[in-house]
Design a protein that fits this description.
473 residues; alpha/beta; five-stranded parallel β-sheet; 15% strand
Length: 473
């Protein structure tokens, strides 16, 4: 049973109602549920379906393609080229019953081997044959976790496939609300604070959530997922990056720079300095591909030069890996249960909660009553000087109605208390932003917390509150 994804299902089923043949690309982070969505939506009824071979040679890819043709009812030899392979696919389609022919090719990027000319053959199949059929009955759906490949070769292609996609669907991770629904569908008894803690670890990745077991506490579930000898996700980190990038070493150098939980972001210059990587087009591609795959985000204020944009690690699981799994190195099978009340655990919660908030900006806007207001969402920071301390604001919402929301995000077991020191820190941020940014809007200080803000003498500093329940909106 599919939880959520109603919009995506409507788009996929809508392909069957179009008069012309359709070419749709579905892409998104690995494990986000792309394959499951497509198969469930079409009830596993395909004229042809195929999955590329991870790190396979051209010969292995073509052999697997032949095997998929055989599974679809065709007898044939192993093709020598992709042109030959698509010729065989044409024969299969010509012999199929009348009606829409749904073709599903999963992990298409894996099939693109050096000198294989996959794209040229696919272009020839689509432009020269599929769209020329008078029946107009082809629905081609391609899918892949290598989002950067999909973007370059299909979405932004400058060759024969330019503009040929009729639909594109980027499948994003579940929201907190969708994870809550997923947990209920799996009969997991979880409160919203439990869902939040699991979300800070697993993100909105359905595959990870599918391993949770009912009857176990959050700590027990986390231990059995990551820290026991037979943990299902024990080796997930290495597989996650190795399967997406042909040479993951330099990508991981960037990720490791950004993984320090004390940091809310780094500039391009800072990453270059710490990673020891060489500046240039290759480094730019690494940042772009990590961003397109959903592991990092680029945050730049409208009044800040692009060179000063901040890069931030936003993949919840990756952050959890560096701050918790890697440190434990599987030496304690009950690591999470044993550190549940530790200082390091609370520090992790604080950083992880900030990232969850950044993943739920739409819910924050709805809670503030500005869901329909045009908003520029960014971050802002300034380095310290002799006159003023440095300041960084992770979430700034510059609104078209003349206001700017300065959002502070805090995880707390109880109502969060603004004390004298924190009040001074907030005041410094507001004054630094007002003096040094080009933003002339009226500033509103917004606190986004798990349990609200305590009403003390500093409470009147804030204009609005957003709580955990609002993030589930």
């Amino acid at each position: 049973m599919i939880v959520g994804r109603e919009k995506e299902q409507r788009e996929l089923l809508g392909l069957l109602d179009k008069e012309e043949s359709q070419f749709c690309a579905v892409y998104g982070r690995r494990r986000v549920g792309k394959t499951y969505l497509i198969r469930e939506t079409f009830n596993y009824q395909f004229c042809f379906q195929h999955t590329g071979v991870a790190k396979g040679t051209l010969r292995q890819q073509l052999t697997a393609f032949r095997n998929s043709l055989v599974a679809a009812g065709m007898k044939c030899a192993i093709p020598k080229t992709w042109i030959d392979a698509f010729e065989l696919l044409k024969q299969l389609i010509n012999n199929a019953p009348a009606g829409k022919k749904i073709l599903f090719i999963d992990e298409l990027p894996w099939m693109d081997t050096p000198k294989g000319n996959l794209i040229g053959a696919l272009e020839n199949f689509w432009n020269g044959w599929a769209t020329a059929r008078w029946e107009k009955d082809i629905v081609l759906i391609v899918c892949g976790s290598a989002t950067s490949w999909i973007s370059k070769k299909l979405l932004k292609d400058k060759g024969g496939l330019r503009g040929r996609l009729t639909n594109r669907i980027k499948l994003v991770p579940f929201t907190l609300r969708e994870c809550e629904l997923f947990a209920k569908s799996a009969n997991l008894a979880l409160g919203r604070k439990d869902v939040l803690e699991l979300y800070m670890i697993l993100g909105g990745i359905p595959y990870y959530w599918s391993f949770l077991k009912k009857g176990l506490s959050v700590a027990q579930n986390v231990d059995q997922l990551f820290f026991t000898e037979t943990a299902q996700l024990r080796d997930e980190f290495d597989a996650l990056y190795a399967i997406l990038f042909k040479r993951p070493e330099n990508y991981l150098k960037v990720i490791e720079c950004l993984s320090d939980g004390r940091r809310t972001g780094m500039t391009r210059e800072d990453i270059l300095h710490e990673s020891k990587l060489t500046d240039g087009g290759t480094f730019s591609n690494i940042l772009e591909e990590l961003e397109e795959c959903g592991f990092i985000r680029r945050f730049a204020s409208a009044d800040t030069a692009e060179a000063n944009a901040l890069f931030q690690l936003t993949d919840n699981y990756t952050l959890f890996y560096y701050l918790c799994i890697k440190k434990n190195a599987f030496s304690d099978e009950h690591y999470w249960a044993n550190t549940f009340t530790s200082t390091s655990h609370n520090v992790w919660k604080g950083h992880a909660f900030e990232r969850v908030c950044l993943q739920h900006v739409q819910q924050i806007k709805a809670a503030l009553g500005i869901a329909g207001v045009q908003t520029n969402v960014c971050s802002w920071f300034t380095r310290g000087t002799e006159e003023r301390r440095g300041a960084q604001i992770d979430l700034v919402m510059q609104r078209a109605d003349g206001f700017t929301d300065i959002c502070e995000m805090k995880h707390s077991a109880n109502a969060f208390t603004i004390d004298k020191d924190y009040a001074a820190n907030l005041q410094n941020k507001l004054e630094a932003y007002q003096e040094q940014s080009k933003d002339k809007r009226t500033l509103h200080l917004v606190m986004v917390t798990t349990n609200g803000v305590a009403h003390n003498s500093y409470y009147n500093m804030i204009q609005n509150e957003v709580t955990l329940d609002d993030l589930f909106g």
